[in-house]
Specification:
The chain is an alpha+beta fold. It is built from ten helices and 33 strands. β19 (about 455-465), α9 (about 480-495) and β20 (about 500-505) form a beta-alpha-beta unit. The protein starts with a helix and ends with a strand.
Length: about 650
């Protein structure tokens, strides 16, 4: 009897296994490859830059000297005196209206000895061995004869590079010198030593690596720009973000003060300087505007992205002062928008087109999009937006205007904004979502039922905010990236409504951050892509030209069995690209049938991004904990059999005829 029962149990177990695997084998997906639903905008996946987390000065901008023109609130911040064997002193002089954008300079007095200033850089200076570095200084000779010695030293004070300057003029003159380093330093310092007897006036003390992006003198940090270029973004939104608004209107971002000669750009305090308490406060966080609107346009052109500038609409940050410009005093703000279009697109014979040409770019930048306000809300915003719209539509109807739906993805402010914008000329409405990973999974169908005839959506700032630990990069977990991937299948599936999308924020220095998670982390010498970065890259590098449907049992797959799907046809490359997210903790198998097309090869490729640990993350020391792996797959007829690993993003590419 026991043997019989045992055989029955064994048979039932085997039958269950057969039924289980048969059920797995019966999971089928159909991709309607010959029935494009909607075009995918070339701007679909882009990047959003804001000068937060030392993303510009100390980051993307390759300048190594902090407070190079003595314009911080404390003019000697970042500098310390070096006294050797004698007397010397530094006097900060403010020349006021003589040079209002850069009024301060330092008068260095030396008394028969060596006296100097040492600059600490941005959490130190990252120096690479055997590389050329370019030093420059604006100087005017006073009494006596002064020579200048320039030294780079490492954290222990050892000299790793040096040069010198002499024969200064009695007029303000830029002097330059270059040298090659003998060692690497993560936290180097620059020493500027003055020798002789007398005094000399100095300003704009600067040090750049020779190797910048495209080797432009005094340009951008090459490795950080390369991370952006590798994303192949369709657009770049700049310069923010909350710095567009400022804590008060006086501190707002004004693009006209960021163009022209570097020494004539007016530095201001970065609003993230005072936004958070210790340890995230940053009293040394200012904006030199070495990256200004010209450099942003140039960067967009370099990486093949549409420029999307955002302008202040006469409102300061509503989370801070919330002050607004009176409606009868809004004209200067509107004029800034009109002048920006002229700067970007105008002929060289126009006032602002000539400024662009004089900076080295006579050809227009072909600006097509313009954002009015960053993250504003309520009646005061809509009233001001409409004033911009009236003027811009009349004079530049070719420009697509971007309005704000406020800081939240739902609620009374959000609903009010959308109600008002549906009767406007806004081409895109900027929606922001900083939410939990669970929210992103739940909202993968958010745009399935949006109005197809209303303004289009710009998913301008989003990031899943989940678990973290004490490690700086730990907020960027695989679970948060996986949630974003699931949500992005919904954005792609609704590409007729969603025309732009960008993760935020973009950059963060590991020792100088105010906000996390962030897409790309860096220190003075290294950079690392987060799991979220590789999700963005897999979508942006596989954008396609037209949306096609992925169906299971005739229905869209958006959360059933924790699977999320979208697909595109790329008419340019002749490929079908299928994106599948398995958010479950177990593997899942599918048979995928491509309907209406013939496959060009008997193999497909699949890129898989996954981790067995939902809360794993990449760090500067372990950069590929979560990293895409590419493999080939077999094809049988028009079918592909695929096994999706647990907690994975899978991108399948098939060549078609």
């Amino acid at each position: 009897m026991k043997n019989r029962n045992s055989k029955i149990c064994t048979s039932l177990f085997v039958l269950c296994l057969i039924m289980h695997f048969a059920a797995l084998a019966q999971k089928k997906l159909t991709v309607l490859a010959n029935k494009p639903v909607a075009p995918v905008a070339p701007t679909m996946w882009g990047v959003f830059f804001e000068d937060i987390n030392f993303g510009a000065d100390g980051g993307l901008y390759a300048e190594l000297v902090k407070n190079r023109s003595f314009e911080f609130l404390n003019p000697m911040m970042g500098w310390k005196e070096l006294k050797q064997n004698g007397k010397g002193k530094t006097l900060i002089i403010n020349r006021g209206n003589e040079k209002p954008a850069n009024p301060r300079f330092a008068r260095i007095t030396v008394d028969s000895a060596q006296y100097g200033l040492s600059n600490e850089g941005f959490r130190g200076m990252g120096i690479q061995k055997g590389k050329q570095y370019n030093f420059s200084i604006l100087a005017k000779k006073g009494d006596g004869n002064i020579n200048v010695m320039i030294e780079l030293v490492n954290a222990t004070g050892k000299k790793i590079g040096s040069t010198s300057l002499s024969n200064f003029s009695g007029e303000w003159t830029k002097q330059t010198a270059s040298f090659t380093t003998t060692d690497t330093a993560v936290k180097g310092r620059l020493n500027v030593l003055f020798e002789g007897n007398g005094f000399i006036d100095v300003d704009m003390i600067s040090l750049f690596p020779q190797e910048t992006w495209k080797n432009r003198p005094n340009g951008l940090r090459a490795d950080l720009v390369q991370m952006l270029a590798d994303l192949k973004p369709g657009f770049i939104r700049f310069p923010g973000g909350c710095i567009v608004e400022g804590r008060e209107l006086q501190n707002r971002y004004q693009w006209k003060t960021t163009v022209g000669p570097i020494e004539d750009r007016m530095s201001i305090m970065n609003r993230w300087n005072v936004e958070f308490r210790a340890p995230r406060n940053a009293p040394d966080y200012f904006q030199s505007f070495g990256i200004g609107f010209y450099e942003y346009f140039q960067l967009a052109e370099d990486i093949g992205a549409e420029p999307l500038p955002i302008l202040n609409c006469g409102m300061a940050c509503q989370y801070n002062t919330g002050e607004v410009a009176q409606m009868d005093q809004l004209d200067p703000y509107v004029q800034d928008a009109l002048d920006l279009i002229e700067f970007a697109n105008g002929a060289v014979t126009t006032k602002w087109g000539k400024v662009r040409a004089d900076m080295g770019h006579p050809a227009p930048f072909n600006l097509k999009y313009l954002g009015i306000g960053n993250e504003q809300w309520d009646e005061q915003y809509i009233e001001r937006y409409k004033e911009f719209e009236k003027n811009l539509q009349q004079k530049h109807p070719e420009i697509v205007l971007v309005g704000s739906a406020g800081p939240s993805p739902n609620g009374p402010r959000f609903d009010y904004a959308w109600k008002e914008f549906k009767g406007s000329k806004a081409g895109l409405i900027d929606e922001h979502y900083y939410q939990s990973p669970e929210w992103f999974f739940k909202n993968a169908t958010r745009y399935d039922n949006y109005d197809r005839k209303g303004p289009k959506v710009f998913a301008g700032e989003y990031a899943a905010h989940g678990k973290d630990d004490t490690v700086t990069e730990s907020k960027n977990t695989w679970f948060s990236a996986l949630a974003e991937a699931a949500f992005m299948t919904g954005l792609e599936r609704n590409a007729d409504v969603v025309k732009m999308a960008s993760y935020a924020p973009l950059f963060a220095h590991v020792e100088a951050w105010q906000w996390r998670p962030d897409l790309i982390w860096f220190d003075n010498l290294r950079t690392v892509g987060t799991p979220n970065y590789y999700v963005q890259k897999l979508f942006a590098n596989n954008k396609g030209t037209h949306v096609i449907q992925v169906l299971q049992d005739g229905k869209v797959l958006a959360g059933k069995d924790s699977i999320y799907a979208s697909a595109v046809l790329d008419k340019t490359s002749g490929e079908v690209i299928i994106k599948l997210v398995n958010a479950a903790t177990a593997p899942t198998s599918y048979e995928i049938s491509l309907a209406g097309v013939k496959l060009n090869k008997n193999r497909a490729t699949i890129e898989v991004l996954t981790s067995p640990d939902a809360y794993a993350y990449n760090t500067l020391d372990q950069q590929k904990n979560i990293y895409p792996v590419q493999k080939t797959m077999g094809i049988k007829g028009n079918n592909i059999n695929v096994s999706l690993p647990p907690m994975s993003l899978n991108v399948i590419k098939v060549s078609i005829r």
